[in-house]
Design brief:
By secondary structure, this protein is mainly β. 8% of the residues lie in helices and 36% in strands. The strands form 3 sheets. It has an 8-stranded antiparallel β-barrel with strand order 1-2-3-4-5-6-7-8. Strands 11, 12, 13, 14 and 15 form a 5-stranded antiparallel sheet that branches. Strands 9-10-16 form a 3-stranded antiparallel sheet. The relative contact order is 0.12.
Length: 464
């Protein structure tokens, strides 16, 4: 079973439920105690990424044994000269070898995730609770003497503290292992107060967790120098969970991209591929995975002639020239973009990677990512005009970066992740990067070389 670290992460607004089997061990005046079984159910809400508020109820029991030595040590409680099988003084309750108490607990806890970039999430917890208990004999379930005469209340406050680990099977489901110690504000969990100290309970549980909420959707990142803010919050678009990529206000295309070539704002990332072209080039065939790629890295470079600011390509079925001059009735001449478009070799299709500049690459339409992991931490960022352009994800070192294009260059092929967000994850003494959410990964031959193309220029003008 392979589980991504995104499946284990906790997201703001997340609601999850836990159902666990539990065993309780009593800590009090008697040392010969044993474990008692129980069940706990809880509901957790996460107001922020690593913090959870948990409401929990539990049913169970704890048990302890007594022997003739205990009876002889406390004649005031058991009676002078009494033995197992005799009655407690002044009652009809028989002294049995083992006693128990059935309990009900209600707790409110705060859980904090210690690490948020690994597949199994360790957490610590603390809270307040109430415990209701009723000490009795094991076989007949008669109440013990002090409880039957109401020498104390059968309920009190408690403070549970502990920790655990949550291991997912998928984004929805997983298992939870946790341990706790409950400080109880009572000396009578065992019906007696021989040592003058409060009693306590140790609990160990193993259960099933289920997330009711869907994972958040990410907006496409707003790249420098246009770090737009979301109008309804103080967070950047790429961190706002309420919008899909195409809905993010700052991810919209410019109204006149041909007049603002210096702007670095991307579209929604849902690009259409052109039909295969019969032309060929000298690109070789690529490898199927990045498990042992070797070879040298190539810095992505932009190729092709830039279009003039007063011209653009409009996708209306045929190319037309647009300028600040009044429209002309004469047929339009081909644009510079069209003259530089060399097409794709046979078996490859055009993938538009920048609708503003009209750049595209030739990719294999049959490629599907396999089981081998692509080494994205050594991939190169392709962001024209950005200070991070040409750097690797590892060298930049951001925790949750989002980019329009990231390229993993191999000796004879390349992989490109388009409109992707990544998550930095610990791996031994170093860190790795894996894509999160819905991603688009393509594969091309030879060296990553974006080119101006008519198809992508038309997409830009039409605002697709």
């Amino acid at each position: 079973m392979v589980v991504g670290t995104a499946d284990a992460q906790q997201y703001p607004g997340e609601v999850s439920g836990w159902l666990s089997g539990v065993t309780h061990k009593y800590n009090g005046d008697f040392s010969d105690d044993s474990w008692g079984a129980g069940l706990m159910a809880s509901l957790q809400y996460a107001p922020i990424k690593r913090l959870g508020i948990e409401a929990r109820v539990g049913l169970g029991e704890y048990r302890w044994k007594i022997g003739n030595a205990d009876i002889a040590s406390h004649p005031g409680y058991y009676g002078l000269g009494s033995q197992i099988g005799d009655n407690y003084p002044g009652t009809l309750t028989e002294i049995e070898r083992e006693n128990e108490s059935r309990i009900t607990t209600v707790d409110l806890l705060i859980n904090y995730n210690l690490v948020d970039n690994i597949a199994a999430i360790p957490f610590i917890s603390a809270g307040v609770g109430l415990i209701d208990y009723a000490p009795s004999t094991d076989q007949v379930h008669d109440p013990l003497p002090n409880f039957s005469t109401q020498q104390y209340q059968g309920s009190c406050a408690s403070i549970p503290i502990g920790g655990g680990v949550r291991i997912p099977f998928s984004y929805r489901a997983g298992i939870v292992l946790r341990g706790e110690y409950r400080f109880v504000f009572s000396q009578f969990l065992d019906d007696v107060n021989f040592n003058g100290a409060n009693d306590g309970l140790t609990s160990v549980s193993l259960g099933f967790s289920y997330r009711f909420t869907n994972p958040p959707r990410r907006c496409m990142p707003c790249l420098p120098p246009h770090k737009h803010k979301h109008p309804h919050s103080n967070c950047a678009c790429e961190a706002h969970p309420d919008h899909a990529i195409g809905d993010c206000p700052c991810a919209r295309l410019l109204e006149s991209p041909g007049q603002h070539d210096d702007h670095d704002i991307r579209g929604n990332g849902q690009d259409d591929s052109s039909k295969p072209n019969s032309r060929s080039d000298s690109r070789g065939s690529g490898q199927q995975n990045d498990a042992n790629d070797g070879g040298s890295e190539a810095v992505p470079e932009s190729h092709g002639t830039q279009s003039k600011p007063d011209q653009d390509t409009v996708g209306t079925g045929s190319a037309k020239q647009r300028s600040t001059q009044p429209p002309s009735t004469k047929p339009a001449a081909p644009t510079s973009n069209e003259s530089q478009d060399q097409g794709c070799p046979e078996g490859l299709v055009r993938e538009c990677i920048d609708k503003v500049t009209g750049e595209g690459i030739c990719v294999d339409p049959t490629f599907k990512p396999g089981p081998s992991r692509i080494v994205w931490e050594d991939a190169l960022i392709y962001e024209q005009g950005s200070s991070e352009n040409g750097k690797t994800l590892r060298s930049v070192g951001r925790d949750n970066p989002c980019y329009a294009v990231v390229v993993r260059q191999l000796p004879s092929s390349f992989y490109a992740c388009i409109d992707c967000c990544f998550e930095k994850q610990a791996s031994g003494s170093s860190s790795i990067y894996n894509p999160i959410g819905t991603v688009k990964i393509v594969k091309g031959r030879g060296t990553f070389s974006p080119e101006k193309c008519a198809e992508c220029g038309q997409d830009s003008a039409e605002g697709k």
